[in-house]
User: What shape does this take?
Amino acid sequence: MINKNTYHKFWKVAGEDYQIVSKANKDIQNRFLISGILIVFIFFVCFISFFFSFKLIFNQTFFAVIISGFVTLMFYNIYKINLITLSLIKLTYSFPNIVSLFVRMVFLMMIGIVISKPLEAVLFRFLLSNQNTPFISSIKTLNGEYPAIWIFTFFIFFLVAIPFFLKFTINPSNQYSRSIIILNKKLVENDYLIFKKKYSKIFEKSIGEKIEVIENSEDPPFNTIKKKDKRKIGTEKEFLNQLYGI
Assistant: This one.
C-alpha cells in the first residue's frame, strides 16, 4: 500500500496542491496519483530517447548525457506548464476550454513524435537490412517501409496525453474544482490589493500625492463586468439648443 508521503510527491509532480487534493475524494486522488507516476515515467523515457539520439549523432556519451538532460528538463517544464495551466475557470465546460484542449493536444502530439521516433530507430533497428544506416536515415526508412511503427508513436502520444485527459475530465462542478477556483480567486484578489497599495505609495513617494488605480470594471481585477456609465446625456434636440443658445 502506498503511504501518504508518496501520494503527496506524485501529486506535486502532477502539478497539484497536495493539501487540497488530500481533502478531495478518492477518485480525484487516484487521478493525480496516476498522472504523477506517468509524468515520472515520461520524463525517463524522454531522457532515454534524447540520449540515444545525441549518442548516435555525436558518438560522445558524456556530451549526450549533458545535452539530453538539458533538453529533457526543457521539455518537462513546457509539459508541466501546459498541464498546470489546464484548469476549468468556469463551472461548466465552455467552447474556449475545448479549443484550449485541442491546441494542447496538438502540442502533445508533437512531443509524442519527438520522443518516440528516436526510440523507434533504436528498438526496431533490427528490421533494417543495413545495420549501418545513419540515425536520421534509419528513422526515414523505418517509417517509410514499416507504417505499423506508427502504432508505437501513438502509444507514446497516448501516455503523454493521459494526465491531460485525467485532469480535463474532472467534473467541473465537484468540490475539488470549486476549491481550486475559490483558492485561485483569493490569490488574485490578494495580489491585486497589494498592487493597489504599492501603486499609491509609489506616487505618494515620487510626487507627494496619492493616486489610486483607475478601475473601469465592477469586479476588478477580473474585469468581466464593465461599469455602467452613470453620466446623464441629453437628447440631440437639447444638444442643438445648447449649441445655438436657444
